[in-house]
Predict the structure.
Amino acid sequence: MGLLDGKRGIVFGIANDRSYAWFITKELIANGAECVFTHLPDPKGKMARRCRGAVEELGVKDPWLMPCDVSKDEDLDAVFDKLKEDFGQIDFVIHAVAFADREYLKLG
């Protein structure tokens, strides 16, 4: 029995299996939580595929995913409206969204 058995939450910020959000989700699942996810909107679907692949590595089958740009109130409203419609309520929110220009991430 895990500390988070029966708890459901949403994770913002999984971009791949190297993101903080992915490692947080790994521990949440190990402790019994059910997680649902958002990904950055992308007209080609690349971000959805990356997010899906990363969470499926954690054993999540057919993950609940929704695009969301956290800088847009209308996207956040849409996500929480859909969560309420699909699940009624959630127990926690993980915000692990980060952004940096590639030039700032270069070593040297």
User: Anything to note?
Assistant: Helices lie at 20-30, 46-56, 73-87, 102-105. The CA atoms of residues 5 and 32 lie 4 Å apart. The beta strands are 8-12, 34-39, 65-67, 92-95.
